[in-house]
Amino acid sequence: MIIDLILVAGAYLLGSISSAIVVCRLMGLPDPCTQGSSNPGATNVLRIGGKTAAGITLAGDGLKGLLPMLVGHLLDAGSTLLAATGLAAFLGHLYPIFFDFRGGKGVATTLGIQLGLDWPIGLTVAAVWLFVAKVLKISSLSALVCMALAPFVVWAFQPQPILVGMQILISLTLFWRHRSNIRNLISGSEGKLTDTDTDTDTDTDTGP
Fold first, then answer.
1. Hey, CA dihedral for 82, 84, 87, 91, is it positive or negative?
2. With the C-alpha atoms ordered 18, 133, 126, 151, is the resulting torsion angle positive or negative?
3. CB of 133 within 8 A of CB of 142?
4. How far apart are CA 145 and CA 12, in angstroms?
5. Separation of CA 31 from chain center
6. 58: Cβ–Cβ under 8 A, 6 or more apart, which residues?
7. What angle do CA 110, 181, 153 make, to 5 degrees?
8. Residue 127 belongs to what H/E stretch?
9. How far apart are CA 73 and CA 70, in angstroms?
10. By mean pLDDT, which of 111-115, 165-169, 198-202 is the weakest?
């Protein structure tokens, strides 16, 4: 029981390390919470710091979800503990205790969780994201589509209600966190991946 609590608490604390803020500080870049879309995610770091900074941020956010799940497997955790661990890492990213509970939107961390849960799940969801992004070139729409399909993907590879329930909760939360992007999509003002606009009044960041 104590090991279970340590795993879940550790997942939340690891998730609370904001890759975007840490990378920007180390690379001497502006605070992503005050620049661009004001969202501490890889897309906003790309906007204000370029591909290298964004790539490191993306990798860091993904590892925050991946590593706790891998540790869970090493400890032979059951589906309930794995679900709790994944949710803890996800919530840590969204509401980081180290950064005044102001986090990103959770797409990259969710992909890390899915890869750690069962790698075909993560690869399938990532493939959907890449396909939609390639065709439509709208990062937020790619995230929304792949996360809408994610519960079905989890069910296909890991048909356990608790794990599907975890993904449903994560997907619903992601849609809520992307509510400004959804409004922009409806109005036709959502930015595309090729846009270089840094207007802080338009939140076009998916916040991986």
1. negative
2. positive
3. yes
4. 26
5. 19
6. 19, 42, 108, 208
7. 35
8. helix 119-136
9. 5
10. 198-202
Name the pTM for this structure. Answer: 0.88
The encoded tokens of residue 89 equal 């890492």
In terms of Cβ atoms closer than 10 Å to its own Cβ (0-12, 13-18, 19+), residue 134 is exposed
CB atoms near residue 44 (< 10 Å): 29
φ and ψ of 200, to 5 deg: -70, -10
Give how far the C-alpha of residue 122 lies from the chain's centroid of Cα atoms, to the nearest Å.
Answer: 12
**38-92 residue pLDDT tens:** 788 887 898 888 899 999 999 999 999 999 999 999 999 999 999 999 999 999 9
Residue bearing tokens 């497997």: 73
- Number of residues assigned to the chain: 208
Distance CA 126, CA 83 (A): 20
Residue 128 C-alpha from the chain's centroid: 15
- The most distant pair of C-alpha atoms in the chain lies apart, rounded to whole Å, by 50
Q: Quick one: the chain helix, strand, coil %, rounded to 5?
A: 70, 0, 30
Residue 66 burial by Cβ neighbours in a 10 Å radius (0-12, 13-18, 19+)? buried
Task: From 183, 156, 178, select the one nearest 167 (Cα to Cα).
Answer: 156
